[in-house]
Amino acid sequence: MARIKGIDLPNNKRIEVALTSIHGIGRKLSKSILTNLNIDLDKKASNLTDEEINKLRDEISKHLVEGDLRREVSMNIKKEMEMGSYRGSRHKKGLPVRGQSTKSNARTRKGKAKTIANKKK
Fold first, then answer.
1. Sign for the pseudo-dihedral over CA of 71, 27, 62, 60
2. What is this structure's pTM?
3. CA nearest 17: which of 2, 28, 6, 3?
4. With bands split at pLDDT 50, 70 and 90, how would you rate the model's confidence at 101?
5. Is residue 118 over pLDDT 70?
6. Pairing between β-strand 3-4 and β-strand 7-8 as defined by DSSP bridges
7. pLDDT, mean of residues 64-84
8. What integer is the mean pLDDT of 36-40?
9. What does the H/E/C string look like for the chain?
């Protein structure tokens, strides 16, 4: 079983798809990494040699993935909240940040429906 950046790659999947289990690597980045290393995209993760796994580790370490990426994203959100920007205030309130409508939906972010005093229908 290949272990890269603290994540066990699923053995039964193609390596192109298995790499996407690492946070920060999607299909496009996975494909470009494998083509740079001349590794067959259809090869199963369980069939990788130790040499190929080491090459993958070196190549993936060049990209921002897993804990570092999560830390950077959370720091960006904290910075928005500290600045007092509109996006930051939406993050604080737990509301949608990117302009979605909240009149009838967005319950997954807002929680259970709350009654608002003096709201006319």
1. positive
2. 0.75
3. 28
4. confident
5. no
6. antiparallel
7. 94
8. 92
9. CCEECCEECCCCCEHHHHHHHCCCCCHHHHHHHHHHCCCCCCCEHHHCCHHHHHHHHHHHCCCCCHHHHHHHHHHHHHHHHHHCCHHHHHHHHCCCCCCCCCCCCCHHHHCCCCCCCCCCC
Place of tokens 């289990």: 21
Residue 115 pLDDT > 70: no
CB 59 within 8 Å of CB 37: yes
Asked whether the beta carbons of 4 and 22 are under 8 A apart, the reply is: yes
Name which of 52, 67, 63 is nearest 7 in CA terms: 67
